[in-house]
Amino acid sequence: MNDFYDVVVIGGGPAGLAAALSARRHGAGRVLIVERDRELGGILQQCIHVGFGLHRFREELTGPGYANRYLRMLADTTGIETMIDTMVISLTADRQVTVVGPAVGLRTVRGGAVVLAMGCRERTRGAIRIPGSRPAGVFTAGAAQRMVNMEGYLPGREVVILGSGDIGLIMARRLTLEGCRVPAVLEIMPVSNGLTRNIVQCLDDFGIPLYLSHTVVAIRGQDRVTGVTVARVDDALRPVAGSQFDLACDCLLLSVGLIPEVELAREVNLTLDGRTSGPVVDNRRQTSLPGFFAAGNVVHVHDLVDFVSEEGEIAGRWAAVFAAGGMGGEARSADVLPGEKVRSVVPQKYVGDGDHTGQCRFYLRVSQPLGRCRVTISDRTGRRLASKRLPVAKPSEMIEIDVQHSAIEIEKGPLTVAAEGV
Amino acid sequence: MDRQHKITCVVCPRSCVGTIAADGDGIKSVSGFLCKRGEEYGRAEVTSPTRMLTTTVRINRAILPLLPVVSSRPLPRDMLLTCARHLAAVRVEAPVREGDVIVKNILGLGVDIVAARDMTVYEGARFD
After folding, report:
1. Which of A77, A105, A317, B20 is most exposed by smallest CB count within 10 Å?
2. Quick check: B84 and A178 CB within 8 A?
3. A331-422 sits in which CATH class?
C-alpha cells in the first residue's frame, strides 16, 4: 500500500473540495481528502436554504446544490481519493497524517503538502457563561440545524434563540416551517449582525420578535429546559436590574459566533492570528510552516461560500506546486496589517505570485459600522496600491479588495489595509 | 383606505427603508428607495410578496432520512407555511437526482418542489 500522497487535504467541505480539485489541476498526481462525516460537502449539506453560489455559478443555489456542483466535478476527476467517516487524530511537522475510521482502520499517510480545511466550530454556552441549571434542551444553532435538516429530529417545540447571527435567524424560520413556535430571538448587541434579508425573511415574515440589547440571564428547568429569564443590557452589556422577564420554552438555541477549528494547527505549532483566531497565511495560503496550507473557515470565518471555494483553489494550487518542489520566494515577504478602522485582514503576509501577473485579493472586516467609505491598501511609503469605495460597511460583512501583483513592491512592506468615511 | 407601508429593501447591503402608500386600487406613491431595483422590490412586497421555499421531505433507503427540497420558483409569501406543512407528510424513495420533481404544482400554485441534491441508495440505511 502506497501511503504517500502529493497533497493531503484535511476536511471535505467547500474549502477542501476546491483545494483537492485545484491541486489535481495544478499537477498533483495523487490527492487525498480526509473527511470525518459520512459524506463530503461539509456544512453545506445542512444549509438547505438558498443564497449560495451567486458569485461562482451566477445562480442562487441551496447549500446541498452548491456541494453537488463540486461533488460532480470530483466524480469527473481521477487521481483524488477520499476517506470518509475518517478522523485525523495526529499531524506532524514532517507531514505525517494519522487517521482512524471504520473503513481504513488506523493508518498513517504522508503528504508532499498538507491543506488544512477543517472549517470552524460554534461557540457554546460555556463560551458565553450563561448562569442557571444544566437541563437538556440547550443546543448550538448549527447543531440544531443538522438535527432538523439532515437527521430528522426537532430540538424542541418552543424555541428561544440567543444571538441574531445568520444561523440563528435561519433556524428561527426553519423551526417555524417545521411547526415549532419561536417566541423570541435575543441579541445582546444594539444591532443584529445578520443580513437584513434574513431579518426580513426569517423573522418579520413570520412575526417573530427580535429583542435587541437583551440577553439570557438564567436558564430554568431541572431535567428539561422549562424557560429562560431575559434581561435588557446597558451600554456596557451588563444586565439592567429590574428589566428581567421570563419566556417559557423547552429549548434554547445559541447562535453566538463561530471560531476557526485550529486543534490540528496547534499540534504543528502554526502561528495563529489573534484577530481571526485562525493560522496566519500568506497570499498563497501557506501557513507559518512550509508545506502546510490552509483555506476557508479555518483561516477566518467567511460570509460567502464562494470565497471559501476561491481560497481553497489558491491553497490547492500552491500545495501542488510545493509538493512538486517548485515553490520559491517565501524568503522575501511583506506583512499585511489591519490599519485604521479595520479589525482583521487575510492574507496576513504577501510573498508575491510565481509569475507576478494578475491580482491578489485581500479580505477584511471593518472594526465599526461605517456609512459611505473608502477602503485602501498602502505600502510603507504611503503609496496607495488599491482603493475601493463602498456605500456602507459593517463588521459582520467581509469586504474584498483586489490589488495588481505588479503594483506591490515587497521591500516597501508592510502593507496596511485601512478604511475611512468619505 | 390609504395605507403607508414601510419596506426595508433587501436587494443590496445599503438596506434602504422606503415608504409606499397604497389604497384598495393600488400603489399611490413610492419614496425612499435609492435605486430602481429597490423600488421594484418595494412594490412587489406591497402587492404580491414572494419567497423561495426550502424544506425537507422524508426519504427511504438513503444515507440520511431527509431529502432537502426547494421550490422551482418563488411562492406567495403567505403560502410558505402551508406548503411546508404539506411537504412534511411527503415520503420518497432513493435514488433521487438533484432537480427531480418531488411535488408537481404544489397546492395548485403553479410551482414545483424539486430535490436539492442527489441521494443514492445506501445499503446501510438505518431509517427505513
Report:
1. A105
2. yes
3. mainly beta
